[in-house]
Amino acid sequence: MPYRTDKLSHAFRQEISAILQRELRDKVLGLPTIIEVKVSNDLSLARIYVSVFGSPELQRESLAKLTEQGGFIRKLLGRRLRLRKIPELRFVFDDTIGHGDRMMQIFAEIGKETSDEAQPSDRETQTSEPDAAQAPEPES
Question: DSSP label at 28?
Fold first, then answer.
């Protein structure tokens, strides 16, 4: 990504996050978080990747509200960033956090299964040791 679009992506992310916290906090449901902003090289389009904490229904509603408020957000961005052209804003749901949670659950299940399989062999060694300790010592 060229330097200018990278810099604009960062600025858009900061400003849109601030707009969501201050101006639109009552109008957007859930807790939307701007994960990433990708701006096209010709500045005609900005894809805003959003994660929303909550049920899938709440996530869909929040994304619909953000899309509905896109024109207002674009107008506020134009005032704050003073660019000649503000790109069209497209909000995209980003489920990487949900995928990460699911992966952690799978890893936890695998860890539990491997520890359950290792425990019977530990029990066998523990049961054989007390027998050895109970055996009388040979007298010399």
Answer: S
Domain ranges in the chain are 3-98
- Burial letters for 40-55: b for 16+ Cβ neighbours within 10 Å, e otherwise? eeebeebbbbbbbeee
Using CA atoms, how far apart are residues 14 and 30, in angstroms rounded to an integer? 19
- Report the CATH superfamily, name and number, of domain 3-98: K homology (KH) domain (3.30.300.20)
For the chain, how far is it from start to end, CA to CA, in angstroms?
83
pLDDT tens per residue, the chain (140 residues)? 678 888 999 999 999 999 988 888 777 777 888 999 999 989 899 999 998 888 889 889 989 999 999 999 999 999 998 888 899 999 999 877 777 778 888 888 888 888 877 766 555 555 555 555 555 555 65
Q: In whole angstroms, what is the distance from residue 96 CA to residue 36 CA?
A: 11
Question: With contact defined as beta carbons under 8 Å apart, do 12 and 37 qualify?
Answer: yes
The model's pTM is 0.69
Phi-psi region of 107 (alpha: psi -120 to 50; beta: other; left: phi over 0): alpha
CA 117 to chain centre: 32
